[in-house]
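the three lines:
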Amino acid sequence: MTGAWLDELNPAQREAVTHTEGPLLVIAGAGTGKTRTLACRVACLIDRGVPADRILLLTFTRRAAAEMLSRAGRLTSQATAGHVWGGTFHAVGNRLLRIYGEAIGLSRDFTVMDQGDAADLMNLIRGELGLAKTKRRFPRKQTLVAIYSRTVNAQDKLAATVQRYFPWCVEDLDGVKAIFELYVQRKRERNVFDYDDLLLYWEALCAADRVGDAVADRFDHILVDEYQDTNAIQGQIIRLMCKRRQDVMVVGDDAQSIYSFRAATIRNILDFPELFPGTRTVTLEQNYRSTQPILAASNAVMASARERFTKELWSDRASDRKPVLFTCMDEDEQCNSVCDRILEHLERGIPLQRQAVLFRAGHHSSQLEVELSRRNIPFHKYGGLKFVEAAHVKDLLAMLRILENPYDEISWFRVLQLLDGVGARTAQRLIEALGVRRDVPFPGTRENGGGPVSPLKRLLADPLPVPPAAKEGFEQFRILIRECTGLSANGNGNGKSGTAEPAGLSLAAQVERIRAFYDPLLERNYENPAIRSRDIEQLEQIALRYRSRSRFITDLTLDPPTSTSDLAQPPFLEEDYLILSTIHSAKGCEWDVVHIIHAADGMIPSDMAVADEAGVEEERRLFYVAMTRAKDRLYVYFPLRYYHHGARLSDRHSYAQLTRFLPAPVRALFEQRATKLVEAELGGGRRAHVDIHKRLNRLWED
DNA sequence: GGCATGTGTATTTTT
DNA sequence: TACACATGCC
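prediction for all of em together
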């Protein structure tokens, strides 16, 4: 039953993989074969006869789950690894709530809104409460969502959260509170869940009397990856899921905890042994990824961290190549240097796909992207603006959402305003007339049994307050809805009547029909409609793979394509491309050659994080995560000066400081290089390197 | 009331 | 650069 692969594991890995029962904590340093260990354990459990669909594997991204399960599938003789429940907390919560949610009064057909939708709803409520026009500037909608989400995920008091993390909003606390109350109420009335609800209600489900046990009994084994980046609710969910049997394995590394802005807390991993008595702890310390010099530099960065689990990563991958610290004149030169290095490595046989450029914030790569395009170096960017955040994609999704859940107010609001002659005011009036707003929480029963009439039926049948200017566009819209739902103007479906599932077009046909309706609007509402139209076409392609509209919408919301090229067809994928990624999105990945750009104070650590020590410590871990992504070669770039934004013609600039995470003793573990320009500027011509570095160092000592 | 245009102002990271 | 808000025209 055990495959030969067991022999290829090191003793610590094997201990984790073959652990029989009871709680298991695996502290796995960067590159120590964590993924492999998890995949092997899944395979091992299946080989031992645990039914695959009674194994729950919680990961940070769906991609991670998919990779582990496909690896596990290759290891086990059983062909059932695909039946393992794998995915993010949010995706699994969604799935469980649709199955068991009715027991706690939830309706099965809720829609899930992403952060942008949540922000729009906050904004709507803020307007209604008249908080938009106060003397002082009220917190922006994204800030509101951030405050809300952090409070909920940390299970903390609002006042404390604002005080601590959003001090500039303290004065608006009353307004914020009022908005949140309405926000929560609105979501329930509209049968809409935000990301946080998926966790919140999952927890409620677990805590509920009968169904709680049923949910907990659903699984024999639970495995959680990246446990250092789980938050209070997620920790609580795990505890509740394990109330009947404690066969749970959590894997994590405190040195790589980088999601505290999402209320992740390291306490989950630190306190695990106390919360789960009898925990067996296994530590993985052998790094298989990086060369020894890269590891030495990374360890040195972490050595000055305030508190950490003591573990010393080691590697037997010797190399005489130290990581390189590259000083450039400015961002322009940084771009050039990066491109030069990349092409150098490419010529020496390292394909672009095995190289990555990492940075702190999404926009840090914009100038580099221009230069890469200029040089015809194809790239693929992770993090930053996503496909589904583009306005036109949201428009299309909103149309599908109202078909799915006719009480989804945000989506109505968005869709109606697309129509010619309809603005915010008219849209609101229409929403009211359609009966989208109801004061009944938890709409479990619909039209059956004398419930409210669906807004979709009203749209087709009722006289509505449509201003003359909007008449024509509105008529088109009516036709669209009629065709998609199969409802007729007198309010009856042409199949089974009175059910929530209309006898309309197939999903693909609906999307196609919507696109025909939407294309002209696209032209009117946005610039470069051609590109946007192509995106919509791609969406149509994806829709072909789905039969269920609900699945399609939810998948796009919970697991959005990371960028437009994710949607590219096979011929595109075969092409070699460079990876650009935020450090956060690079978590769990590895590349032969890694380039970290903007290693300046203010970028890493980010200006916004240095207010308190905890913030700086997290930035340190972030830098550590970035460094430990490298297998063979690591380059860190530091531009000496930054030009002040916007000034195209002005040369106003200021000198940057090298990131504080590379003090002299750590720098000694790097090979230090500078561009010719830097040498010229600092050395006044052709001086010896030593001299230049002395002068450079002077710049860095505060 | 709807919508185009202009102005001033900012808090990184993601499910 | 985007977004929130004010203004002015249809």
